Amino acid sequence: MNILDKIVADKRKEVDLKKSLITIPQLEQSVMMERTSISLAEELKNSTTGIIAEHKRRSPSKSIINQSLNVQDVAKGYARAGVCGMSVLTDGKYFGGSLDDLILARAAVNIPLLRKEFIIDEYQIVEARAYGADVILLIAAILSREEIKTLSETAKSLGLDVLLEVHNEEELQKSIMPSLDMLGVNNRNLKTFEVNLETSKSLSEQIPDDFVKVSESGISSIEAIQELKPYGYQGFLIGENFMKTDDPGKNAKEFINELKK
Ligand SMILES: O=C(O)c1ccccc1NCC(=O)[C@H](O)[C@H](O)COP(=O)(O)O
């Protein structure tokens, strides 16, 4: 069993329990359902820097990254830094996140928010909308093509952008469909946790131009972004590099200023 299998097994139990406690019609009562969402794909298309900064307290690969920060301070810092969007991990068991983090970030900033979650059920997409997300992540490694189609169409019908994440060519080929906005290549090998930017480089040619290309994980330098841009990447998802510091927003600002030079 790899880490994704373990996370998904736990997630199925979690979603079943949540469904028995709060129904979809109850989630749909949220005032957030009426909010006009902001497209991350459009922000990335219009940006020269393309940074999506993540709120990540801990992870299976690194254990504790930073547990002492206030999510609203992090969100405000990222917004001040000029990021295109913020990714908020909402998984509790493996990443120390929650839906409270998402709604608190929503209350603090007016930039696109990605619900970073292991989505296996449309319930979690309604939840994402109800808690103020603008974008959802779908992970090809844990979903069939049919599931990707159903879940991405549900997200689109709720006005959300969809970022589809792949790790290899097989996942990419099975996933391409018009209901996706962005294709993310994850540089982290989930068996070994090693990160290698070559994954983004080698898959880039096979991503049709209709999708905004996002490179995810293991990005910690300006040089890495300069290496990836010629491959057509317009979005760069960065978590640990910012979150390991005392002030992720300040760090992101310095990073973005340097990138603009
Ligand atoms: O980060 C992990 O250890 C991890 C393990 C298993 C599944 C997903 C995982 N991370 C989720 C992410 O995609 C990253 O948080 C995101 O791309 C940012 O990565 P990084 O900049 O390396 O923190």
From TrEMBL:
It catalyses: 1-(2-carboxyphenylamino)-1-deoxy-D-ribulose 5-phosphate + H(+) = (1S,2R)-1-C-(indol-3-yl)glycerol 3-phosphate + CO2 + H2O. It comes from the Bacteria. Its EC number is 4.1.1.48. Pfam families: IGPS (PF00218). CDD domains: IGPS. Pathway: Amino-acid biosynthesis; L-tryptophan biosynthesis; L-tryptophan from chorismate: step 4/5. SUPFAM superfamilies: Ribulose-phoshate binding barrel. Keywords: Amino-acid biosynthesis, Aromatic amino acid biosynthesis, Decarboxylase, Lyase, Tryptophan biosynthesis. Residues 4-254 form the Indole-3-glycerol phosphate synthase domain. The keyword Heme does not apply. GO terms for molecular function: indole-3-glycerol-phosphate synthase activity. The keyword Methyltransferase does not apply. Belongs to the TrpC family. NCBIfam families: PRK00278.2-4 (NF001377). HAMAP family: IGPS_A (MF_00134_A), IGPS_B (MF_00134_B). This is Indole-3-glycerol phosphate synthase.
